[in-house]
Please model this.
Amino acid sequence: MSIDLSQFHQVFFEESFEGLDSMEEGLLDLNPDVFDVETINTIFRAAHSIKGGAGTFGFQVVAEFTHVVETLLDEIRAGSRSLTSNHIDLLLRSVDCLREIMHALQDGDEPEMALANELKASFEAVLSGQDAAPVEDAQAASVEQTVSAASDAAEETSDVSTDTPPPSGYWSIYFKPDADVLRTGNEPVRMFRELECLGALSVEAVTCDVPEFSQLDPEVCYLAWNLTLNGGTRAEIDEVFEWVVDESELSIRWVDDVEDVTSQKISARDEGASDEGARDEGARDERALSAEHPSDVLAQTQSGKEQPIQEPSIQEQSIQEQSVQQASSQAPSVSEQSTQAPSVSEQSTQEQPSQEQQAQGQSAEPQPAEAAKTVKKAPAKSASESTSIRVGIDKIDSLINMVGELVITQSMLGQLGANFDMEKLVRLQEGLAQLEHNTRELQESVMRIRMLPISFTFSRFPRLVRDLSKQMDKKIDLVLLGENTELDKTVMEKIGDPMVHLIRNSLDHGIEVPEARVAAGKPETGTITLNAFHQGGNIIIQIIDDGKGLDRDRILSKAIERGLVAEGERLSDEQIHELIFHPGFSTADKISDISGRGVGMDVVRRNIQELNGSVEVESTPGVGSTFTIRLPLTLAILDGQLVRVGNEVFILPLVSIIESLQVDLSMINNVGGQSEVLRLRDEYVPIVKLHELLNVEPDSTELENGLLVVVEADNTKVGLFVDDLLAQQQVVIKSLEQNYQRVEGISGATILGDGKVALIVDISGMLKMANQTNGRFKSKDFQAA
Amino acid sequence: MPKILAVDDSASMRQMVTFTLKGAGFEVEEAADGQQALIKARQNNFDLVLSDVNMPVMDGIQLVRELRTLADYKFIPILMLTTESAGDKKMEGKQAGATGWIVKPFNPDQLLNTIKKVLG
Amino acid sequence: MTEQVLTKPTNASSNDEVENALGAHDTATDQYLTFIMANEEYGVDILSVQEIRGWEDATPIPNSPDFVKGVINLRGTIVPIIDLRLRFGLNQAEYGPMTVVIVLKVSDEKGNKVIGIVVDAVSDVYSLSSEEMRHPPELGDQVNISFIKGLVDVQGKMVILLNIDVLLNLKELPDVETLKKIIHE
Model:
């Protein structure tokens, strides 16, 4: 049977990326001073799984690279090597490197192995270093393995040739398993059956150890066997006994038919001849032991001490496999790797201390540059992401329940329809209500499938903060709150980059260097807190730092310098803070690598707005800043209020609506003779006529004939004048841009129950339009100022 | 048809093993760690257990020990999926009562051959 | 709709015929769907035509140019409808039972878009080779005529072959008078 392994590749990549994430997370948690077995075990397991999977699914380069990673982790896990921060760095870099390689493999590209080879050499230098004195054996074995893997295949073939038995003779086997062989599930009969497949077999049981019946324990094996086998190779026979060789007395010898030349022709089927051989066994035993073929004689007594004799043959086998696969998948980089690596480890075994220092010195220097490169390259390949989604069983179960209910409702309606009369109208209506309920629940459950905890996004930040703070000589703790807050997968994928930028910004501009913090009477270590929570139909993500806060005066002078603000203009703090989101605004004195790379806060805001979200900043000098991102939970579905203007139906997002009211003219004030303001309790709310803004013919232009819908966006309230309110319903958001273009004041379209298209109003965009077209109103803040 | 329990914390490995074995006509149940495996083993009568060694919650070695204490699993074959690396303790597994092992990486044919041999 | 394969003898010189034979692989004929608009016949590459449907009311898009009639629901996707008459600055015709929408797949730098164009009536399908096409007359730098792939004479009737990708992405189009000049010069 041949099975196409590529069908499992996607799952393998996905779980490997997850594994790499958890390795990274674990590594960031590790502290060289504390031996945290649980975390190390988790990291080890992830590496181990990746290696196993990579080998199985034919990604040899990954398997080989992970092997050294795993070896180091195993030594640390076993306590035979103590963890240093150098190890953590090296391991973190390999996580990055593996990610790169696997992305390339996933995209069907040839992975770039230069960094991997360099890291592998560093690993081997570390592994052969002296701090691992107690594990010499394991290490020697690994060196030996790499050396022999790279060495000529001639050795292998000569090994194989000794495996082939001389042309004439038979195998004589004595097998006495330990008494409790049966308790390991090893059935001697099964082994004999396997031997039988190799050639004619005769079995003779040695029963001298069988006790009297009264003392017989049926679970214990008292037997031994003398076997003769005509055929098979030594390796094949070894394989049959592979699992029991350490728990039994086993001798396997080749007996030459020297006396009888004609018996060379003994065929495997010739029972008589082999029986004869068996009878002669005793005599031949002696001769065989006196060793014409010493290499074939392996008298195994008890387990343990002679284990090494067996081990190499297994190892060699796997090495042979490896080298064959290497040869077949031969990319230049691969061969380079296999020849280079051993030479390093060989050298380092000779001059351990200096070599190790050197290797570590080498690896330490190019590190930041390489790391930066991988970080930068990662987003470019996002095409290969988002192909599938992992869903918790509970979500699937609720979905199945939902469908079950739907089926019941459907069959109920079906019965009703089969012989319907008007008396059953009530039941029909009930049924339809039930159907609507089911459909809604089903829709919600399906949407919930797309919801993932934000920890998927948060998890990449500990690494970012660690690397950046190192780079900037700042001390920073990252605190993650609300990691289980769920949001739509699509939103999640798009919010990562803006968040990276905001975090970089807080690190670079917010948190002070340790000396400055101490001087300001703050703890030396700064704190950046990421906080996520739900609020209404939104998810709120906050990036909070306890740094120096926004520099009001500098922002203002910069804004004046850039002509964004007129000199002498009085602005509130909030208005000044807003300026940092202005296009082209950057206060960084020097363009650092961290932020101020031309990508400004204006881009961050634009990206977030494209997700129908908003970003705001609050800041107190000397205490810190808080950036607050507000996003819809999902991009695909919206709770909408249908409103009618003339013949057209528009949809207002329900979350933006504060209230709807019939206009009482006494509540309307005229400002400046033409613009109208609604007095709503103690607030004045400007009125926007939707028909004017969207250029639609209304039923009536008189306020008392229609309705006002009070909506809020960007901290501004307005009363939208419409002809009528229709139903509230969830609508599926369809893109207008896909086939047309962005339309100001409109965030998308949807298809109503009758198949007609209705447009969804973008409240904040619409406010901007209203502001631009007539400038009748300004936000509260501007009025306050 | 013999019933096999496949235990591995790696979903891709489980899929591969299950697909291979089902393709050969075996009945297969999956478990992602030793704990899950033990629960499934108590609910079913498997003819063979195939288990990874390094797993979260309960590792393969412990699973073998636990299984061998159950009357139904005293003699049934339990195979470990191991690697050649030092991290995988074949001998420890054997002492715990495992029947044998299949060395990773293996391909579907190797897996099937071994299992067919063990099940006779 | 009948299909006319033009096999009329061309008045091309023998030299041209040799060229034809040599370049046979890239001068294979393309099929064009033609439609009538203000008594002129226009053709679009039939491979870009997705479907032809009758006129139905579209949902208007606020503050859009008058030639954008709105958007319709085409099996779940939102498709804009453009009145080609208005696009060329002609008067809008009354929409009637003969009014049809040709749904086209258009490529721009961002990928493919599906757009419907309103035309007076669908006319015919022709197989044409590029030899039969001639270039539109140059009218100076002011007039961008890159949306015209070529002009072709079909049985004494002038057909304007449109490069639909360019046409629907152009900001400015020449007015109808200029168009007339192009066709009849």
